[in-house]
From TrEMBL:
The keyword Chaperone applies. This is Prefoldin subunit 1. One of its GO terms (molecular function) is unfolded protein binding. Keywords: Chaperone. Belongs to the prefoldin subunit beta family.
Amino acid sequence: MSIPNEALHKLAREIEAQAAVAQQQIGLARTQITSKQREQRLVRLTLSELASLPEKSVVYQGVGKMFALTPLPSLRLKLENQTKDIEVDVDKLNQRLLYLETTHKNSREHIEQMLRTR
């Protein structure tokens, strides 16, 4: 049983559109991963700098356009929690990237298979 040419072309266009969307989303996911990793390095650097300070040090945290006095232990805790949150975000983005790459690969394979059987 053969598929009419018109239906085959329509199916190929739909698969091609899926592949294009997946390719675009792959680029976006990679950009987001890079941004999160940069943010994570900055937080870790800040934590390492805070580790060298004595416990009684006066530290300030940026709040909008001003700075607020913050106890050192609470700032460390906040930054550690932020690091954990960023790690979770990066893991989710990596899973999404894997899904998108698989979708793109499958779309390409389906198009190639359609062209071979034609």
